[in-house]
Amino acid sequence: MLFSSTVFLFLFLPIVCALHLLVRKELKDYVLLLASIFFYAWGEPRYVAVMLLTIIINYVGAILISKYKCKKVLLLLTILGDLGFLFYFKYFNFFVENINALFDGHIDFIKVIMPIGISFYTFQAISYVVDVYREEVEPQRNIYKLALYITLFPQLVAGPIVKYHDVADQIENRTVDFEKVAYGVKRFIVGLAKKVLIANTLGAVADKVFTQPIDQLDCVTTWLGAICYTFQIYYDFSGYSDMAIGLGSIFGFKFLENFNYPYISKSISEYWRRWHISLGSWFRDYMFLPLSRALTLSVPYSSLCKRIGRKLTNTLVTIISLVVVWFSTGFWHGAAWSFIVWGLYNGFFIFLEIMTGWNRDRKSFAGRVVQHIYTMLVVIISFVIFRSDTMNYAWHYLLTMFGVERGETMYHLIYYVDRIEIIALIVGIVCSAPLCSNMLEVEGRSQLRIAAVNLWLLALFILSAASIAASTYNPFIYFRF
Fold first, then answer.
1. Which residues have a catalytic role annotated?
2. Distance between CA atoms of 67 and 76, rounded to whole angstroms?
3. Cα-Cα-Cα-Cα dihedral sign, residues 135, 138, 139, 145
4. What pLDDT shows up at residue 417?
5. What does the alpha-carbon distance between residue 478 and residue 126 come to, in Å, rounded to a whole number?
6. Can you list the positions of beta strands (E) in 304-400?
7. In the prediction, which pLDDT does 480 show?
8. pLDDT over 60 at 439, yes or no
9. Which of 18, 60, 174, 274 could form a disulfide with 252 if both were Cys (CB 3.0 to 4.6 A apart)?
10. How many domains does the chain have?
11. Does any domain span residue 1?
């Protein structure tokens, strides 16, 4: 069930909100839990059992970790259980296909279909058991409350990835008031408009370009497709995150921000502090820092320090940690070599910036402009790799973009863009900067400004609803992950 669907907007959400408002406080969690399971079963009824098994494994695992001394073994077994589901449903096809290709094999297998959202709720489950292992939180003794954390429908299928220690207190005790609900509704409308009015419009252009054979694209068309996709994925995913944060606020939860205007960044390091913040912080807290610490405390580290010096050894530790983390980041996004290359590509530029100091802000205006142009160029190229089905297509697409190869386009530019798409692209570029970042927080100021914002949001909702009713093109990019 999509947030940007008529069933969700005009049937599911009003019923859940009404029930949540009317029932006693002690029953609100059960309303949300049942609604979340129904929400997931609407699109993936076959895979509800997988999600429920994940809940049981992590519920039992966390209690055993807190009770017995062999904590590391129990943590490892629980995480292996989580990753076992993820590996089978997301990566089984990839590994068998590559084994067949590598060894010219003919292993027959039934292709596995990936459950929606398994990457997101698996990472949330892992964060819970690791937090219990680190004694940052107590194990949740009420399995229904743990199930609510993992299945909560606003962030179930496409994030943001909510860490357990960030919402543990809210699960136990939260309040719902008019201000939270009002803010949640406004935030949801903003996200809906970003998704429907900008992402969908630009996505139609990007799909037209990327579905063409590469020899039928020219330099201008490839740049058009790459730029449209760059803004499509931002407004698609940040729009979904806005809707998730808004829904959470309606039900009394405060989720952390997932995007902070990444396209104003002046380095790739800064970009990844602003883009998909919940994923970046997850890999930092649960992979990069523990891995770096483990390598630093290892016997080979001491030996290398004596041989080549501490500075070079620390650089080597950084390289190993970045390679592991960015390989994992790419592979998390999808079971394809293009995603792996995309991840390592981002990691390479982050390492380059660390080594050269490029990630430090320049004092001069010209220096900041150059940094910003560099960052956006790297980002646009990365999304060509991300969007392409194969690395071969991505490579020739990039060669065409930069004029090394020349295709003969079969279509005039008007085939790809019309007036509406040009307007959407201009609006997308302008709104990717924090020009109206405090629009939703005008309480306490003039009543005229509050009324103007509310009327503007109402207009956005009407336009979005009309667009949903009139169009059949309504994908969510991150559902595939």
1. 333
2. 15
3. negative
4. 83
5. 20
6. none
7. 60
8. yes
9. 174
10. 2
11. no
